[in-house]
Amino acid sequence: NGIRLSAVWLTHDPEYPENLPAAPLVRYGWTPRGELAAVYDRSNTQVRSFTYDDKYRGRMVAHRHTGRPEIRYRYDSDGRVTEQLNPAGLSYTYQYEKDRITITDSLDRREVLHTQGEAGLKRVVKKEHADGSVTQSQFDAVGRLRAQTDAAGRTTEYSPDVVTGLITRITTPDGRASAFYYNHHSQLTSATGPDGLELRREYDESGRLIQETAPDGDITRYRYDNPHSDLPCATDDATGSRKTMTWSRYGQLLSFTDCSGYQTRYDHDRFGQMTAVHREEGLSQYRAYDSRGQLIAVKDTQGHETRYEYNIAGDLTAVIAPDGSRNGTQYDAWGKAVRTTQGGLTRSMEYDAAGRVIRLTSENGSHTTFRYDVLDRLIQETGFDGRTQRYHHDLTGKLIRSEDEGLVTHWHYDEADRLTHRTVNGETAEQWQYDERGWLTDISHISEGHRVTVHYGYDEKGRLTGERQTVHHPQTEALLWQHETRHAYNAQGLANRCIPDSLPAVEWLTYGSGYLAGMKLGDTPLVEYTRDRLHRETLRRFGRYELTTAYTPAGQLQSQHLNSLLSDRDYTWNDNGELIRISSPRQTRSYSYSTTGRLTSVHTTAANLDIRIPYATDPAGNRLPDPELHPDSTLSMWPDNRIARDAHYLYRYDR
């Protein structure tokens, strides 16, 4: 009828009734034939454009995201896409035959999809991958997945409910099964994993989650104060601690109150973006956005501001620190970072047509290169130092062999794809063992001919209850040494005790949802903690000592004072959040940094001491010889990123 949606305006907002936006939230442009040609966001920036076939109305032949290359399409006489042309990435061709579609990309990688069924019941039942491997899928009469066979010939079975189609059982190739149960609203009420542990959920009459029991038995309850809202006003966890939340009419979190009654508040703008976070102890953070909704500034309570810049495509191009220093990033046509610059130093990345990193160049000009197989798996990496590592995978993608110059490592797995052992140059390195529930029970390795093993024990809830370390004789397998540590939990399910062999138990006291309040060894108190409204440590009592800790308005460590004055420390920070001074009664240490944020010197002063230690680094951050100890050194960088010497040592490398 010629009517098209051209714009969406906000005409009524109960939260901001007197301050409505002067521009539409979104605007659409159309061709004379009624085809969507362009989309503009609320800043009136065009974000999408579309081109159509002159002959066939509505057939899109090209589209583009703002700041990105145009993707073009070609069709056959039946209106099917035969080519997808990407000027800066992978292009594809599509060949159609009866029950068969062949897809070939511009790297000449080919995939073949075999289909069965007609119209809405057509399904891909077999897929030939670019490496020649094959995966298969089976479906029931109404098109629901029943089984999948991977490239190694292993089958995973799925059992959908006859009426709802929801999955009720998954059986993996090793025969282990997971079961799922639902209520009459198709909501999950129970899930049992292969280890036999069960997750349970309960709902109210409105279908809202009111209780969840975790596999370890911990119960979380959800409460609602609005019969029309799906958002909880409170949660009670397994410890009995309650957290409360308030929400705006639009579902935005306005406040969160923790189990101690301490509150965090959130402010939002009319577009739903968070503009401020107000925490206890006077800590606040403020955020600003541009007309496109992109974050452009973050400011803390002290007024320190970090700013952000973007290109037309929305890629982050610069971060400006509070001191004005600038970190920049450049991108290729597809939005992948190709160059990052900080303090005048540049790191660059190169990609292939598939978007894979193939070359990384450090600030020193050294290169790391990467190679991939036809399934995009990393198969070779040659590092800055020239060392080459190679990787081999099985048909399902698991790493089975790695080569690191003269070291050849093989990785072995069981039917459940769990790692069972690893060999290095033919010798067993580590072994892993599991029980019938799939839990790790033993991990062992050989050290100087002796087998060293750690054994793990669990309770029926799957919680760790013990660790036993053993060492066996290399020839007789006689037990030479062992040590066991046991773990215990309180009634709320929190770990609260560790019992080492032949030692008193170490027990810790917590409050709320697990904040540490104190520890004791046997019946002897070791340490007690006092915390502020952000649960940060402010006072530590141990023996006859007390350590008082204070924080800056920005939340950084400000001081630590012990009731032994000689151990007091005060901390000073710059606007960028870098530590620049530690002061104590005996001495003061000052720290200097480069524009890249690297430590350049430490200046220590005391009654009879005034010394400055410089830290010189090459562009990649490798430490250079001390310029004061080696004034004649002309070294400006370490070739291949390998340090040959420093102030105290010489270094030699193997292959």
From TrEMBL:
A Pfam family: RHS_repeat
The record's section on NCBIfam families has:
YD_repeat_2x (TIGR01643)
InterPro entries to which the protein is assigned, alphabetical: RHS_repeat, T6SS_VgrG/RHS, YD
Q: Which organism is it from?
A: Escherichia coli
The protein, known as: RHS repeat protein
Top-level taxon in the UniProt lineage = Bacteria
